[in-house]
Specification:
182 residues; mainly alpha; two-stranded antiparallel ribbon; 5 helices; 45% helix
Length: 182
């Protein structure tokens, strides 16, 4: 079997292939060459496969992902202390805290949204205060926004302050407390 022989040979049937195989394997020199060729091919493919995999992992940076991190056994040691579980974690719940981006105060997470709303001047109370300020600046110049003197007592109060109505007390004899009768 020389290296110039054709690699791809077609046989008429399976019996012809078996006859040709037996003829080659009957010669001890050919058997030795075939065994060495097979052995070298397998070793070369195995080594090249490993080398290519290592090279590819190094170039792509995936070697750390394949190897992983070494396992830390200290993490799983049993701890027997008060106020901790068997792994050493604290049993008590810690309040989660947030930092306000506006004033940089540390606020509990449950109070963060209301604090931020007030801190940034948004929300119901702030809009009412802003409306009152606008109304006060309009009223200063001309008595009213529309220019005329109008009675605004019947308008809705948006200031957020509740006005108490004075309730006149009626006595049992039908007269009012201030002395006037109805």
């Amino acid at each position: 079997m020389s290296e110039n022989d054709g690699i791809h040979i077609e046989y008429a049937d399976e019996q012809e292939l078996m006859r040709e195989f037996r003829r080659f394997m009957s010669d001890p020199e050919t058997r030795e060459k075939a065994g060495n060729y097979l052995y070298e091919s397998l070793v070369d493919e195995t080594i090249l496969g490993v080398v290519y995999e290592v090279h590819h992992a190094y170039k792509t940076g995936s070697s750390a992902a394949v190897d992983g991190e070494p396992e830390d056994n200290k993490q799983y040691t049993i701890v027997d202390l008060p106020d901790v579980d068997v792994f050493g974690s604290s049993i008590t719940k810690k309040a989660i805290e947030c930092q306000c981006p506006n004033c940089n105060r540390i606020v509990a997470a449950s109070r963060f949204a209301p604090h931020l709303e007030k801190c940034m001047g948004m929300g119901r109370n702030s809009s009412r205060i802003a409306s009152r300020r606008i109304a006060n600046t309009r009223d200063v110049g001309s008595g009213s926004y529309f220019g005329g003197d109008e009675d605004d007592e019947d308008d809705a109060d948006w200031s957020g302050e509740k006005r108490k109505k004075k309730i006149s007390q009626v006595r049992t004899n039908g007269s009012k407390k201030n002395g006037k009768t109805s």
